[in-house]
Specification:
This protein is an alpha/beta fold and 208 residues long. Helix content is 37%, strand content 17%.
Length: 208
């Protein structure tokens, strides 16, 4: 399949369609699934520390590279730090741990997984440092609302490139999407098919 991209606010190109691995357990099945996704044309692979499957994702990615299916530069790999009031140093260590599990030298995108009861300031400072040191190509957030995004824009140096939110016909998130559009923050949908439930919707099925 052809790879269509979006240009993020730091001029990095990101594939529009990504392969997510939420709820998929570590193991050979996931390794094979990632390789198959790459064979079929996916170039954006999305995981997270809390998913507990970064090692298998990394094995799939690296095997695909070793077998000549794709080069590292052609891939866009995302992971996320599970923010539960982490300190600056703990966030840096979380990034190092994710890299080690994935077997990669860098990530294309690193996200704060959720605002964590408004305890995202220290993690964001850490992500800014990683970005400035060229250890990650892009930084962003997930599950942030307008007040969280406004705080980052007003009080920190770097605006997130992405806000990854649950977004589908039954949850349109108009307010946060409008804010992101006004401030050049790309919205990325997670669960765009409602974990497959949307395919059983009579109206959607009729349109399809």
């Amino acid at each position: 399949m052809s790879v269509q991209t979006k240009t993020l606010n730091n001029n990095i190109e990101m594939p529009e369609l990504g392969y997510g691995v939420f709820r998929v357990e570590e193991g050979q099945e996931l390794v094979d699934a990632v390789k198959t996704a790459i064979k079929k044309g996916y170039r954006s692979i999305d995981t997270a520390a809390i998913y507990g499957n970064e090692e298998s994702v990394g094995r799939g990615v690296n095997q695909a590279i070793e077998e000549g299916l794709v080069t590292r530069d052609e891939l866009f790999i995302t992971s996320k730090v599970w923010n539960d009031g982490l300190s600056y140093d703990e966030t840096i260590q979380a990034y190092e741990t994710s890299l080690s599990k994935l077997g990669l030298e860098y990530l294309d995108l690193y996200l704060i997984h959720w605002p964590g009861d408004n305890k995202y300031q220290e993690p964001w400072k850490a992500l800014e440092a990683l970005y400035k040191e060229n250890r990650v190509r892009s930084i962003g957030v997930s599950n942030f609302q307008v007040n969280h995004l406004e705080d980052l824009r007003k009080n920190f140096e770097i605006t997130p490139v992405i806000n990854q939110i649950e977004f589908h016909p039954r949850l349109t998130q108009l307010e946060v999407r409008t804010y992101c559009e006004e401030h050049n923050i790309q919205v990325e949908a997670w669960s765009p098919l409602m974990a497959g439930e949307l395919l059983n919707n009579e109206t959607i099925s009729a349109i399809a």
